[in-house]
Amino acid sequence: MQTILRQPRHVGPCKVSSYSCQRNYHAILPTLFIAKNPATSVRDVQAYGFFDGLKKILYGSDNSRKPQLGSQDIDSEEAEEAEGADMMRLDSESGGLAEDQSVFGPLAVLLVGFMAEEVEQFRTTMLEIEADMVKIVPCSPSMMGGTLQQALESEIPKYEQPLLGTRRTVFLSGMIGAEVVEVIAAYKEAGMPPTVWAAAVPNNYTRLVKDLVDEVHADNTAMVRRAQEAQARQAAQQEVGMGDGQL
């Protein structure tokens, strides 16, 4: 396992956060947190790769690797977050994602709608996978009215409890595909609350956080509905087939 140095990175018009400039990070990284070019110790930065068009919907707390669509055991209040919507499923079985080396934005995670103890649990989870170089930003109520860029590039704020009704959403930035898979897998294995996952990409970087949260959850709800309708049609077809077989 190789020790590498992650240096502050600048992508296009996006400024480097003052936080990331305050210190250099040395860490022994797990297998999935690797440099694209170990010889240079800093991986190449590209404005866009697999993240483009990615509003990735994933399971949060379910320890199974694949969501079970249309489960009748899921609480209706958690259906939008916990059921199996996956606009483009992002999990450890997705072969191509782990090979993508493109990154966009600062190396950071924005946690929206998380309680203080959940933020600390996420921080502990990141330490356990030796990803302590990733900046963890708990989204304050005021950040909801700012852009995703401002939130990700800000100084780490003092924790403020989210407003009632703020839905859990995780925005990932500056990670290659394999690192995204690693973070999500660790989150699920830690048994953390259901959430919806999204990625920082050029076309959403200057949009308001609150608008992005609404959009990814609306997309999630629509995907859940389509999946349930497809499952219902399949079940109906199976019943018809069984009935024909008994004639």
SSE pattern: EHEHEHEHEHEH
The strand count comes to 6
From the alpha-carbon coordinates, what is the Rg to the nearest angstrom? Answer: 19 Å
Q: How many distinct domains?
A: 1
Q: Which word captures the global form?
A: elongated
Percent of residues in beta strands: 5-15%
Assign a percent range to the helix content: 25-40%
Q: In terms of per-residue confidence, which ranges show pLDDT below 50 for 5 or more consecutive residues?
A: 1-99
Average pLDDT for all residues: 69
Major β-sheet profile: 4 strands, mixed
Summarize this structure as a short list of keywords or feature phrases.
single chain; 247 residues; alpha/beta; 4-stranded mixed β-sheet; two-stranded antiparallel sheet; 6 helices; elongated; disordered N terminus; UCP014543
Task: Describe this structure as you would to a colleague.
With 247 residues, the chain is an alpha/beta fold. The protein has one domain (45-246). The protein contains six helices and six strands, in the order βαβαβαβαβαβα. It has a four-stranded mixed β-sheet with strand order 4-3-5-6, with helices on one face. A two-stranded antiparallel ribbon has the order 1-2. Strand 5 (169-173), helix 5 and strand 6 form a beta-alpha-beta unit. It is elongated, with a radius of gyration of 19 Å. The chain starts with a strand and ends with a helix. 37% of the residues are buried. Residues 1-99 have low confidence and may be disordered. Pfam families: DUF3783. Residues 65-85, 227-247 are annotated as: Disordered. Residues 229-239 have a biased composition (Low complexity).
